[in-house]
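With this grant's support, we have settled on a layout for protein records. A representative record follows, to show the layout.
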Amino acid sequence: MSTSLRQRFGQVVRATREDRGWSQEQLAGRADLNRSYLGEIERGTVMPSIETAAKLAAALGVSLSSLIARFELMAIAG
């Protein structure tokens, strides 16, 4: 079964968050997002808007382009 784009983006967000040792609650607070919504992003059930992706990137301390590049690399490899 092919991994969807939503799932790949969620995996990138989760992996980046876990690299920092943060809980979903911590990232959600830093990004000013609802923790349940962040969980949906990480599970790949929703694809965030560019605005939300930018909030996540800023909260994670990476550029939006870097976050998207990680996503693209996973999509190519997957």
Observations:
- The two ends are 11 Å apart (CA to CA).
